[in-house]
Input
Amino acid sequence: MGEIGQQAIIIGNSFNNTLGLIRSLGEAGIDIILFLVGASDRLCIVKSRYLRNKKIFQVEKVEDCLPILKQIANGLNTNVIICTNDMAAQFIDLNEHELSQYYSTPMQGGQLGNLMNKDVQCHLAEECGFTVPKSLVYRRGNEFPKNLNYPLLLKPINSNEGAKSDIHICKTYDDVEQSLSRSSACQEFIIQEYIEKEYEINLIGVSTSHGVYVPGGIRKIRHYPTIYSPCSFGLFQSINKINIDTTPIIKFITQVGYRGPFSVELLHKGDKDYFMEVNFRHDGLAYAATASGANLPALLFRENGTSIQVKDIYMMDLSIDFCHVKNGNLSLKDWIKDFRRTGCFLNYNRKDKQPTISYYKNKIKQKLHL
Output
């Protein structure tokens, strides 16, 4: 339980984002109420030891959460809503005014509004001091802008209105035409200067009533299956080792007025770190910060600020990183070396083994029934 009797209201689907948050809060002794959105529990999240004797609501659509949230409200406005995916974050934002009467919400009754829009984020980020790639907006069906410099990056302007498969590196206009001809529900894109990155950084932070904390981030080493897919192996380091000035981040989050866990995605090239986007939710890689010594979600339930010390720690998503070996992109010897030095597995936790055991049991059953 939090220091003032608060509970965490977690809203999200059955992925690492949600499981990592449950483990972080559980390790801190914070009481949890879970809204698990989706038809199935893919990662067997409900088997977590930190959900024993806890309220769990499994709903098909995120909209189904609203009547239940109003029904279970305690009238004290102390329970804290935390989202673990963009769809949940957008849903809460649309209902902020009403839900803030019953809960501590991310915008305290205000709204993020169009800050889910990557173009809007980029303009604000530039005002706050970030280095931002040149970009413009394109809507499907309109004439594609001429005289652009190639290669360029084409991606959905809002994550909720597109998919990873809608992200394209286009070296020529023919690539653009081919990308846009693919079946997709995405209607609006951001066209962005393509940065030939050396590596990607995911900064992990939290904003509380006491301040904005960004103790470190993950230098992404491997992705699967493509460079714009989730990170499967990386190194969490302190903000000093990564050598990033947090002033623009603190200014950005403070100006928005957001409270809760967040992440900032950057591309590193040469001596510059290029802003890509802010995620106003708990990140899928964020448990690495907890494993390093910085349990950031727990800070939302403390009455006072705190100083944070972190250690270097390698993180791996065991369920997908071994695919590099199966596909012949990485030797088994090198993978074992990385496996042995990994201190944080996103889907496996020695203190909370049952979700992983259940996950692989289900995988084996599915294979046997094929």
Observations:
- The two ends are 44 Å apart (CA to CA).
- The longest strand covers residues 211-223.
- The mean pLDDT is 93.
- The chain has 13 helices and 15 strands.
